[in-house]
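Thread title: Can someone regenerate the structure for this chain?

I was given the following input by a collaborator and told the matching structure tokens would be attached. They weren't. Posting the sequence so someone can regenerate them.
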Amino acid sequence: MCGRPQRYGALVIVEELIQKTTALADSTEKRKKLPDRHNGCQETAFGSPRDFLDNRFVYAVVSARARGLSVGVNMCPDKNCNFQCVYCEVHRNGEPREGPLAVEAMAAELKKTLAFVRGGRLRERPWYRTLPDELLQMRHVALSGDGEPTLAPWFAEALQAVVHVRALSGFPFFKLVLLTNATGLDLPQVQHGLKHLTPSDEVWAKLDGGTQAYVNKVNRPGVPLEKILSNILLLARQRPVVIQSLFPAINGEEPPLEEIEAYSRRLLDLKNAGAQISLVQIYSATRPSPNSQSGHLPLKILSRIAQTVRQTSGLTAEVF
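Best answer:
Regenerated them for you:
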């Protein structure tokens, strides 16, 4: 699909894992009985666990978009988010399991987890024993979690703490990736925090549609689409960004063609306005979600969306 046989093989593996997860997610009762990640168990993501390794804030996950192992920082254990995406796997009903992020505790967990991963000790845990070596190579540390990271009260402090761990821990240099819905990129504390990123680090900004009506249907955001686009442009004029676009099947239906065309034109508008967009990630819902309306799109439809993006905007688009 992108002319590289090795990459194609990885997509086939992911598709097989997605099919297994979809079969599990079809059962509401099974979905309700997924283990609690904060009790030493795991949540699945297309067959890959998000494993907290007995931590409160730091976890490991095998990620298709990372092309291997991602160590994640849950910036929003309190589940604070201004989107209510139909495909979100986070159960937001009831009381949060945690309060806000504790920066010092997170930094200590990150050091411990990096040592655990670098020492090859993931192989001691049952899930990882049979995975290929290439999937256990750490690709980055992701600032993500159960909500919108830029809304975390101590975002700048947390980002600076992670940068200090990278600088002072003695580990080989690793890339940082911020996963964001872009709505908080203009906040002063976020702008301040992003100054700690190096050119090797990345910001992955969410854009799941091209019209307000469709974004309302998929993301149910607390802000207008124009705000999202203006914030992406604000940052992308300062540094390259990756656009992350998740297209779910809603009640079994794929996004309308006119929506994909509108989305692709939005990307073109951003590019023409000076946005530096290094990559557009096209993917679909893969994690079990409490919303039964949300499902996974097959790779052929995702590939068609990526092709429209390439033809319309001239940007690099990959399917995951």
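Residues 200 and 264 are 27 Å apart (CA to CA).
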